[in-house]
Known about the structure:
8-stranded mixed beta sheet; 2 domains; elongated; Rossmann fold; alpha/beta; Nucleotidyltransferase, domain 5
Amino acid sequence: MPSEARTKKLEARLREIKQKKIGWLQMQRDQRNDNLLEFFNRPKDEMGMPANPLQAELLEAWENQKYKVFTYTGANRIGKTTILTVIAFSVMFGKWLWNDKKIWFPHSKARKVRLIGQDWEKHIKAVIAPELKKWWPKRRKVKVRKNNNGVEYYWEDEATGSTLEIMSNLQDSDLHEGWNGDLIVYDEPPKREIRVANARGLIDRKGRELFAMTLLKEAWVDREIIKAVDEKGRPDPTVYSVDGDINVNIGYGITQEGVDQFIKTLTDDEISARIEGKPSYMSGLVYPKFSRKLRPRGHLVERFQIPLNWMVGIALDIHPREKQAVLFLATNEKNERYVIDEIWDHGNGEEIADELLRKVNRNFYRIADNTIIIDPLSKSTGEAQTDENSTFNRIKRRLWIHDIALQVASKDKSSGILEVKKHLMGPNNEPSLFVFDDCVRFIYEIEGYLWDEQTGKPKDKDDHQMENLYRLLLCDTHYTEPDDEGLEEENLHTDAVNSVTGY
């Protein structure tokens, strides 16, 4: 029947369209698999492979020219080798292939990249080389050379003349000398002498370093690179660090089922390092959630002049033979806390009190409850209670002249530590404690504050500002508006003082 013929013809046409669509999709898949770099960091609906959150953060930071050293650390399987390969090749090409956006360089020469792996057989040949072949675009011509180990150690992009040279962390450091280039990428931590030998080669071209690694060993990397400081002791503003656990990559290349199966093979210590990304030498941190990144990703903020209405708590930790520690903690209208100032210096009671008062007057700090708190031990000794010349009594008399009371702080360290942790990361995964990035003593202490395995308490070392911090937070200061009289006094004071001349 004519209607049957039309139906069969329509069905045949639909099958033909379906086959063409299948063929087109297969062609797209083949094109993608041959040129993965062009599809990286693109939406899935474009057949792309979105970067996981950590990789995306690193790529965003790479756009900022002020950063010279990058670290990508944490657990196994967070895409470390993938992201270092993506960045190494992109630097060679001078642009991100997925959006054709150029990568800035301080020169117009062909780029030179060096990749440092571990041993040639188990790591470079078995892990790095296959990843490089996987990500090199098939449409780009490349010249390669092999070394005596049979590894393609030297890659040259014919279009740009840019090169990639692979070396081993086990080679003598002298073999790493004499090179100059634009980028060094480390897959797993290098030995310190290897890093130094290679870093010298970045001077002429104002190059960059990328460390992609699981920190099981080489603790110096954490001390000297991730926690690097500038000449003033502040966190080095040229360093950008990304860190995370294995869960960030679930759905971006691994599955929860695979992770669960991997966990079964590990000890508790191995889970900490390989799943959570915390090496053994950092597992004892009291405040592992503290991040030296700038807000909103971390807890640091650049110094600004705080509003006059913010309430400032002040705590002193006094020792007869060590430097004296004073911490200034501000509370704003949202009841967020800011570590805004500190004193870390030798001095007797009058000297420390005077320096404290100078900071208060110079910055017009509004002292919370007009009271300053002090280490309980400063008054617990017989000397402090009876000797008029004790440090405690000297400070107390100095503050009374300015109508400021001195009060003994809380001893409840356990509750105080919990309070600090709550402010570092609240129930909504948002911090309410921030730190001015030039409070160098405070940052030094909080990043190295450790539990004592034998006592189960924090170690009694480099903890003076940590003592001040928990005591101030236990005061539970809540913001209140200044009374009218206080506002009038502040306005008269600020009107009478020139901010430049000081008089």
